[in-house]
Amino acid sequence: MQSLAALLSLFLTLALSSPGRAQERDPLWSDTYGGNVQGQATDVEISRGTAVVTSLWSGVVPRFAFGFHVRAYDARRGVLLWEDLVNDGLINIANEVTIHQGRAYAVGMTEREFVQGFALRAYDLDGGALAWEDWVPGGQALAVGAGNRTVVAAGQMGAGFAVRAYDARSGAFLWSDLQGDTNRTEYATSVAMGGSVVVVAGFLRGDDQDSAFTVRSHDSRTGALRWRDESEPSRFGIAYEVATRGRTVVAVGTIGCGFGVRAYSLTTGTVLWEDVEPGSPDPSVDPCDEAR
């Protein structure tokens, strides 16, 4: 028994010290709010050695107010290079950031005179100077993408699925795509750029309030609709994220009431393949009822 115990001990020692085993390491650097400040970092992008972070920041007066906060760091050393805080009113949040050709584009919601609005702010990556901004009342931007001289922000406006496009350098407004009904809550949740095409994912609702996994493709400069795809509406249908690479688009989310992945041709929108799990191993059980 002692021999067996010794062998077991040796095995565990070798396994725990194996080079292939992940080991805890100290970070290069960290940044946490202190004192009476609270916050939640929401997104990060890195370019040219600079890490740009968006966040929800609470530490303004009154105490329960929230700020649209963007901070840029030296990615290797953690030195704060610049920051921007928008804290007018009570509710502001920076949701997502992308970096393209020397500029950082952050989107979210900011408040002006007690009205929340769909917000996009463009910064010079070097120094953080505000290059331009756009604000539209009654909405929130959840996602942003940039490419082909164009910046595209997407989210909700009123209660509908909303997409707005701008010239990346000047901030000039180019086009918008507003879908849905103000009586129904609908969102665009993700943006992906593919050459001259922008693909946006989210969900739209039917008359019965069920929602559809939704993907829409536009010409990035003109806004012309290239193609669209919507799943059969269900209680939980939504496309959360979309990505492009080469000639392929892949969107993920909930189709029906379960796991859903659907791939498309970037140019035509033809469905190349999909992987959909119904959400219930029992065919006699409605997966939507089980998912509740």
Tell me what you see in this structure.
By secondary structure, this protein is mainly beta. The protein contains 2 helices and 20 strands. The chain has helices spanning about 1-15, 285-290; strands spanning about 40-45, 50-60, 65-75, 80-85, 95-100, 105-110, 115-125, 130-135, 140-145, 150-155, 160-165, 175-180, 185-195, 195-205, 210-220, 225-230, 240-245, 250-255, 260-265, 270-275. The strands form 5 sheets. Strands 1-2-3-4 form a 4-stranded antiparallel beta sheet, with no helix packed on it. The longest helix is centred in the first third of the chain and has 15 residues, at about 1-15.
Roughly how many Å apart are the termini? 52 Å
- The main sheet orders its strands as 1-2-3-4
Query: Whole-number average pLDDT?
Result: 86
Task: Give the C-alpha Rg.
Answer: 23 Å
Low-pLDDT segments, ≥5 res? none
How many H/I helical runs? Answer: 2
Give helix and strand order, one letter per element, not per position.
HEEEEEEEEEEEEEEEEEEEEH
Structural category: mainly beta
The largest pleated sheet is described as: 4 strands, antiparallel
- Helix percent reads under 10%
Broad shape: globular
Share of residues in strands: over 45%
Number of extended strands: 20
